[in-house]
Amino acid sequence: MPLVVQKYGGTSVGDADRIRAVADHVARTRRAGAEVIVVVSAMGKTTDDLIRLAGEVSSVQPPREYDMLVSSGERISTALLCMALAELGVLASSFTGSQAGIVTDTDHTKAKIVDIRAGRLTEALQAGKVPVVAGFQGVSTERDVTTLGRGASDLTAVALAAVLGADVCEIYTDVTGVFSADPRVVPDAHKLSRVSFEEMLEIAAAGGRVLHLRSAEFARNHNVPLQVRSSFTWEPGTWIVEEDTSMEQAVVTAVIHDTSQAKVTVGGVPDKPGIAARLFRSLADVSVNVDDIVQNASVHGTTDISFTVPRTDLKTAVEVAGRLVEDLGADDVTSDEDVAKVSVIGAGMKSHPGVTATMFETLAEEGINIDLISTSTIRISCIVRMEDVERAVRALHRAFELA
Ligand code: ASP
Ligand code: MG
Questions:
Q1: 338, 394 contact by CB (below 8 A)
Q2: Is 55 inside any structural domain?
Q3: Which residue puts its alpha carbon closest to atom 6 of ligand 1?
Q4: Order of strands across the sheet that contains 261-270
Q5: Residue 13 has what pLDDT?
Q6: Average pLDDT value over all residues in the chain
Q7: Taking CB atoms and a 6 Å cutoff, what residues make up the pocket around ligand 1?
Q8: Which atom of ligand 1 approaches the CA of 9 most closely?
Q9: What is the pLDDT of residues 119-128, one digit of tens each?
Q10: Does 199 fall in a domain?
Q11: What is the CATH classification number for the domain harbouring 71?
């Protein structure tokens, strides 16, 4: 019997009707002859509500208590889904992350999985039951409840699929798959029927919101075939699989944009060894995730260093950089929130020169100024003004003939 892991996101289990619809789909998958393990997120905006509530009772949120609080949302979904399955005559048991054997390190609010002891899940399967697991959480090596970071229910699903050797991990959400661009910005964007792990990783890192970044990484490392699909239409979605090198690849697969970043510039930094190391070590120490970095050519022995960070980390980044200004012998720190990133991604780029030129020409024709540039082997990203980003996405989608 094939083993399928199905993960349902917050909107997929947003209310009682949705939970019944999901139960129905699980029952149908069982009847079609597959073993099913379900992973659920918290209903709708439950996690956000819990975090807001925490802020209302205290400005001090000990990470252990934060995890105890926010992990409860997923627990509600598991029990309700099991009840809906019982109504349909499907045997099911709910499991918290801890009960499912997901062991993590002790880094509360963003714990890493260190081991999975899935014995109870395999026992449930053997007993003919559907295990329904609370996503995004585990138990630490110190036996405390931990969470794996926002959006990490995907990771729970992928990790379980990997250790249990599932045939497929299906990620159910409120969109029908991964698109060539955000359909709200580019109406003629199309659904990709398959993308490679590498492309998915770049899409997630570039701000494509469909799949959680660490999950894409985990799926690639363990070669877990994924399918992202809609729990509203149930139509076939996007397959994320190993790169098929026997086929001719599209040069550009998708144009992704991200409006969640901000730019920080440290001006007048002495151009000598060790300065960038100090700056970025200090940022890493406070867990600020730096994305693109540019250092200008030095004039008269000083230079500017610019970098982007998630806007939610901007305040911390500016504080950290500000504290270092004197130490570094720099002039000042400035920040800019009116920026956005546009990226073109495609595995075919490796063997096709000229993509960068086309990208820059396209932006030039639109009169869009490029602020920062960064690249990987299959991605080119430009930081542009926020007000220009949607125009940039549409122009690039046209230029690379993705419609
Ligand atoms: N409920 C958690 C969150 O909102 C985890 C998830 O949805 O994947 O971040
Ligand atoms: Mg979610």
A1: no
A2: yes
A3: 151
A4: 293-295, 302-310, 261-270, 332-336
A5: 98
A6: 95
A7: 9-10, 41-42, 47, 73, 135-136, 150-153
A8: 7
A9: 999 999 999 9
A10: no
A11: 3.40.1160.10
